[in-house]
Backbone:
């Protein structure tokens, strides 16, 4: 598979692996919690560098996010975005030292910087995506080919799902070139295309209304395709009615829908409707008998061409999404805030339609370039519509994360008094917890009493690092049990207190080991025990099925099967 090379790629290729884990610190004042108690199980709005925020989400959400929608900078040269990832490579530092930041149109290396910025974030997003989930990325012509190339490399060519095209505005006659660009793309990638959930639309079964005389019904379908004989010469040929010998050719500008061998099989099976068998009808060309079971899917496929609202579908056998233009997004912000507080916001209908098609009512949806918060608005609107319980996670690095992103969500939840739209005025209901990125979870600082992580944070970190799996809820069980997988029980002997960590209570000793071993006999699993020290040899522990992992010097990575 061809790959795209760009300046700095060798330095950012594995950068996502070196990004430290950080705590998520809840800001109660900025949250709008359910029952007055903000928590990390709620909808989340995270303020901070999205690269670090995505890494912070891994211990809990790796492989759990069903739908990711992102709207990254389009790299037009006018957006004022900066590339400032702390990649620990002298050549990168030297490159950026004298380079333009923010990135502007005059920067001849702006495409390289954009790719360096996107690469590690896309890697982490892939880790967060579920096996049956989909990632949707808005982009325009400037970086479309580069984005497609790196996504092919990260997800593999088979990870490509679709490119949706939507019209963002009415073309302008004042365009500076002969071409007025009025569309954008939404690229879709996944881990397993066959497993991706697609809502779709039920096929029209009423067309299967012609009896075959044997208790079944079929539909009369076109037997030709809209291509010329020059394009598909092997599908331009004569077919004959076996009863009468009368021959038929495709009409001008069309070809048969099958190659000759397949067509012979259809004729032999009696699946062709011949005009000369029905002389009293208006039929002039052969047609195909199609039975419901012939359909490849129960639901209509979705067109990659997204139409404007109220524009009729051209093909009833294809489902077409209908959405508004950018001006719709601007109008909604003006209703909520009384002013346009964000440039070029995506229309609510676009994101809502995409989420409607690719998420169920209890899925987790992530947007790590949150902007004005349209994704959260769409999630809340869909939950109101179908009484669902979708959850959103927004990440915004800019200073407007609270005043614009979170404030919009507050207004959408509680209602905006001056809004003309009734839903916006009444509010959609819901809640969220606002978080700031905290300090690095630095294992080496445990015994120094500096920046001690909470028990739950360290438990999730240890569990994920040791097993490669996420910990939904810390158990706080007997013998410091925090969670288990099909193969392991994980124990973390820890309290965020220096005196405890220096005491004998924080050690793995014989009584505790025997208690852990007793539970292992019933579960037939291996125990991974994290502690600052132990009073037993590993040989003794191994005989009990216990692996000791020392804090703070190392966390041994024991990947689960």
Residues:
């Amino acid at each position: 598979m061809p790959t795209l090379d760009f300046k700095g790629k060798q330095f950012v290729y594995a950068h996502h692996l070196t990004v430290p884990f950080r705590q998520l610190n809840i800001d109660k004042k900025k949250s709008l919690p359910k029952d007055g108690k903000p928590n990390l199980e709620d909808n989340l709005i995270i303020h901070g560098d999205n690269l670090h925020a995505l890494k912070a989400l891994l211990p809990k959400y790796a492989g759990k996010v069903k739908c990711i929608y992102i709207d990254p900078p389009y790299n037009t040269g006018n957006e004022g975005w900066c590339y400032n990832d702390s990649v620990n490579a002298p050549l990168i530092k030297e490159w950026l030292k004298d380079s333009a930041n923010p990135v502007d149109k005059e920067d001849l290396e702006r495409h390289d910087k954009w790719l360096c910025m996107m690469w590690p974030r896309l890697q982490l997003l892939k880790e967060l995506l579920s096996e049956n989930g989909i990632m949707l990325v808005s982009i325009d012509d400037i970086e479309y080919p580069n984005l497609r190339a790196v996504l092919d490399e990260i997800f593999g060519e088979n990870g490509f799902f679709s490119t949706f095209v939507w019209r963002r505005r009415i073309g302008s006659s004042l365009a500076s070139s002969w071409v007025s660009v009025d569309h954008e793309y939404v690229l879709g990638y996944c881990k397993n295309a066959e497993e991706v959930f697609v809502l779709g639309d039920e096929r029209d079964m009423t067309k299967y209304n012609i009896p075959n005389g044997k208790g079944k019904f079929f539909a009369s379908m076109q037997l030709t395709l809209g291509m010329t004989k020059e394009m598909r010469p092997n599908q331009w040929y004569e077919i004959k009615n076996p009863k009468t010998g009368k021959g038929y050719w495709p009409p001008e500008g069309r070809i048969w829908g099958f190659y000759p061998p397949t067509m012979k099989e259809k004729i032999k099976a009696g699946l062709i409707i011949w005009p000369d068998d029905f002389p009293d009808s208006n039929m002039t060309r052969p047609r195909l008998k199609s039975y419901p079971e012939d359909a490849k899917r129960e639901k209509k496929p979705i067109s990659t061409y997204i139409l404007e609202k109220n524009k009729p579908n051209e093909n009833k056998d294809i489902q077409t999404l209908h959405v508004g233009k950018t001006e719709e997004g601007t109008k909604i912000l003006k209703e909520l805030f009384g002013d346009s507080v964000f440039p070029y916001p995506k229309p609510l209908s676009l994101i809502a339609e995409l989420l409607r098609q690719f998420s169920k009512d209890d899925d987790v949806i992530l947007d790590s370039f949150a902007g004005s918060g349209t994704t959260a608005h769409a999630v809340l609107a869909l939950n109101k519509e179908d009484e669902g319980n979708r959850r959103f996670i927004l990440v915004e690095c800019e200073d407007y994360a609270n005043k614009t992103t979170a404030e919009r969500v507050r207004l959408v939840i509680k209602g905006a008094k001056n809004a003309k739209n009734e839903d916006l005025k009444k509010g959609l209901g819901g809640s969220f917890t606002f978080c700031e990125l905290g300090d690095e979870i630095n294992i080496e600082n445990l015994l120094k009493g500096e920046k001690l992580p909470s028990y739950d944070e360290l438990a999730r970190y240890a569990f994920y690092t040791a097993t490669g799996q996420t910990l939904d809820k810390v158990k706080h069980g007997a013998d410091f049990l925090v969670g288990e997988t099909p193969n392991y029980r994980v124990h973390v002997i820890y309290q965020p207190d220096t005196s405890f960590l220096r005491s004998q209570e924080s050690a793995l000793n014989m009584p505790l080991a025997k208690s852990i071993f007793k539970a292992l006999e019933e579960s037939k699993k291996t125990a991974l025990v994290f502690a600052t020290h132990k009073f037993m040899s590993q040989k003794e522990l191994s005989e009990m099925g216990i692996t000791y992992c020392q804090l703070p010097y190392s966390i041994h990575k024991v990947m689960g099967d």
In short: Residues 47 and 436 are 5 Å apart (CA to CA). Residues 553-561 have pLDDT under 50 and may be disordered.
